[in-house]
């Protein structure tokens, strides 16, 4: 039950979380970076996934890790060799940033990628999203993660009237409010939000009719047909319609 101080926008938040997590347990894809908590492997996957489809990243992820199995191996590589390993994925700036990150972590953190989002954000090529992703997906820290998929879902579910261009800070606040406090559950919740944005609540179409969180989503509730059934007689005063 939401507390009395829960803002109106979030009164369906517990139901949203519950339904989303249940759906993810049944329908979440088995992806190689979801089977590991190795921070270096997670960082590689996150750099690759920036602006590249999951299916394509799957082709390159294992090969890259086979060539550079540790962060020390990557740090010791020549820039040209790293670029060659990235060939076909495009956006080579990501490879250069990942390489610089590896060198910085070896030099400054003895080869251990930090778990603190603020320390992560100080590393080359790491913005707020990647810092949250490494902290959550590698270290199971209860921290929000907002990428374009998550932003879309949160906007449609909780702030459908907010302009896309004006909503960045608001969506991070919303994600922070929704993220479970238990790290392991936060891991699942963040993965599930991204998965919903990738498979159901997509940029091209919001498949509200088959969406697991429809009843807890502002947009979904507006587009759902009202359940039919025999009209019940209400006692007392009728409720005001919203
Ligand atoms: S109900 Fe529709 S708008 Fe809401 S999260 Fe699901 S697909 Fe997106």
Report, as a whole number of angstroms, the end-to-end distance. Answer: 20 Å
Number of domains: 2
* Rounded radius of gyration (Å): 21 Å
Task: Report the CATH architecture of the largest domain.
Answer: Orthogonal Bundle
pLDDT < 50 stretches = 227-242
Strand content: under 5%
Order of helices and strands: HHHHHHHHHHHH
Class by SSE composition: mainly alpha
What's the CATH C level of the largest domain?
Mainly Alpha
Nearest-integer average pLDDT: 90
Instruction: Characterize the main sheet.
Output: none
Number of helices: 12
Coarse shape: elongated
Give the total of beta strands: 0
Task: Outline the structure in words.
With 242 residues, this protein is mostly helical. It folds into two domains: 8-30 and 142-221, Helix-hairpin-Helix base-excision DNA repair enzymes (C-terminal) (Endonuclease Iii, domain 2, Orthogonal Bundle), CATH 1.10.1670; 38-139, Orthogonal Bundle (Endonuclease III, domain 1), CATH 1.10.340.30. It contains twelve helices and no strands. The longest helix has 18 residues, at 92-109. The chain is elongated and about 60 Å long. The protein starts with 12 loop residues before the first helix and ends in a 19-residue tail after the last helix. The chain binds iron/sulfur cluster (SF4). Iron/sulfur cluster (SF4) binds at residues 153, 156-157, 200-201, 206-208, 211, 213-214, 217, 219-220.
């Amino acid at each position: 039950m939401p507390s009395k101080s829960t803002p109106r926008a979030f009164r369906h938040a517990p139901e949203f979380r519950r339904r989303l997590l249940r759906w993810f347990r049944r329908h979440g894809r088995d992806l190689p970076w979801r089977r590991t908590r190795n921070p270096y492997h997670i960082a590689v996957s996150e750099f690759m996934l920036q602006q590249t489809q999951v299916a394509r990243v799957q082709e390159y992820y294992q090969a890259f890790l086979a060539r550079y199995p540790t962060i020390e191996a990557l740090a010791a590589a020549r820039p040209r060799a790293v670029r060659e390993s990235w060939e076909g994925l495009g956006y080579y700036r990501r490879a250069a940033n990942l390489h610089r990150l590896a060198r910085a972590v070896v030099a400054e953190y003895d080869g251990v990628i930090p778990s603190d989002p603020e320390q992560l954000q100080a590393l080359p090529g790491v913005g707020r999203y990647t810092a949250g992703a490494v902290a959550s997906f590698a270290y199971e820290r209860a921290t929000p993660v907002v990428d374009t998929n998550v932003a879309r879902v949160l906007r449609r579910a909780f702030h459908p009237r907010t302009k896309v261009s004006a909503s960045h800070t608001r969506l991070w606040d919303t994600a922070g409010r929704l993220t479970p406090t238990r790290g392991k559950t936060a891991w699942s919740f963040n993965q599930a939000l991204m998965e919903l944005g990738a498979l159901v609540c997509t940029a091209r179409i919001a498949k509200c009719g088959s969406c697991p969180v429809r009843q807890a989503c502002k947009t979904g509730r507006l587009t759902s047909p009202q359940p039919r059934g025999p009209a019940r007689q209400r006692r007392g005063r009728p409720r005001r319609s919203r």
